[in-house]
Amino acid sequence: xxxxxxxxxxxxxxxxxxxxxxxxxxxxxxxxxxxxxxxxxxxxxxxxxxxxxxxxxxxxxxxxxxxxxxxxxxxxxxxxxxxxxxxxxxxxxxxxxxxxxxxxxxxxxxxxxxxxxxxxxxxxxxxxxxxxxxxxxxxxxxxxxxxxxxxxxxxxxxxxxxxxxxxxxxxxxxxxxxxxxxxxxxxxxxxxxxxxxxxxxxxxxxxxxxxxxxxxxxxxxxxxxxxxxxxxxxxxxxxxxxxxxxxxxxxxxxxxxxxxxxxxxxxxxxxxxxxxxxxxxxxxxxxxxxxxxxxxxxxxxxxxxxxxxxxxxxxxxxxxxxxxxxxxxxxxxxxxxxxxxxxxxxxxxxxxxxxxxxxxxxxxxxxxxxxxxxxxxxxxxxxxxxxxxxxxxxxxxxxxxxxxxxxxxxxxxxxxxxxxxxxxxxxxxxxxxxxxxxxxxxxxxxxxxxxxxxxxxx
Length: 458
Known about the structure:
Layout: E1 14-17, H1 24-40, E2 45-50, H2 56-69, E3 73-79, H3 82-92, E4 97-100, E5 109-116, E6 119-120, H4 124-134, E7 145-147, H5 151-159, E8 169-173, H6 183-189, E9 193-197, H7 219-227, E10 232-236, E11 243-247, E12 252-253, H8 255-269, E13 274-278, H9 285-291, E14 295-299, H10 303-313, E15 317-319, E16 325-327, H11 337-348, H12 354-359, E17 365-366, E18 370-373, H13 378-389, E19 397-399, E20 404-408, E21 411-417, E22 423-430, H14 433-450
Parallel strand pairs: 2-3, 2-4, 3-7, 8-9, 8-10, 13-14, 13-15
Antiparallel strand pairs: 1-5, 4-5, 5-6, 10-11, 11-12, 15-16, 17-22, 18-22, 19-20, 20-21, 21-22
Helix pairs in contact: 1-2, 1-4
């Protein structure tokens, strides 16, 4: 049997280029491995869904064939947002499901997010699927195939629980991703007046890329807010599990500041609760959580790591800088951009001045995510070297949960190895420009000592 490409088995999912590393033949093998793993866990059925990418139909059919070969039943819920697949998995298949999605990658990519019995597969459990294929450790059987429409149940579950104090006028930009098929209907169901931008699903993404963590992708929302009477803008990534927020006056509310708003709300009903966030988040977040009676927990970046930590810590809420938000209070604990948008609107509907409420969240001087390109695997070596040898100038704390996060009295610097691409990710935050430059200089010195030819983006 020809070898399956190693490089598609990533830290949080399986992902590659369609027609090259992701072919129908490979996907059938991956399905067979997933089904075999499900059998080993005494599961009987797996829900599958796909986003709006052009390759989705062919690949989900191949996936279904592979899963059924293992003797596991397949419940196909069709073209849905990733959180709708998680919801269907939870409701129909002992919390087991596979989403065919390329997330925020370019159109020629596709991949798989996998949850089995409530566990999101990541790191070694993803590699274990590859080993099953290579060792032919596959069960045989003939699972059944059925189709199920989950949309009405999912939308009803949200609109039945979330109530707005007043209707809000909103702009929704789905960037031609799959959220466009559901987000406008959801928010109208909550009583909002919705102006739609790029909500027709088109896997070639003809307008802008569906990734709200890149500020340029929010220009259309900013423009629409300026020219209409809408009060707030929401934007979604390609598979609907991440949320971008833009205020009336064009300010982008990053996910760590969104988390402040949600944490204060959740903690008002659950004093002492734990709130989890990743190492990229602002240093204003932990004190804010404490101030509102909660316990802050910093953890590794990556939706599957954060989700596992949420379960382990029995936390109420979690979030990461990339825009993944996980509500356990009143919801299921999976990352859901559509639901996060609904919770946001519920909160803001009680406020007369939405823009002021959002602008009043503590802010700081910070950089976007910066990247240092390296050879494959070199990013992990470089970070390990820095963890061992770097000497920083008067740090208050050096956190090595995920790379190096160095806390100073007036800011922080972060360097960590990306788990998805061969880069070192950097982020800086400070009280003022002078502090920001000093912290960057401290990192520059240490990085260049470890890798003299590093091309630094600051």
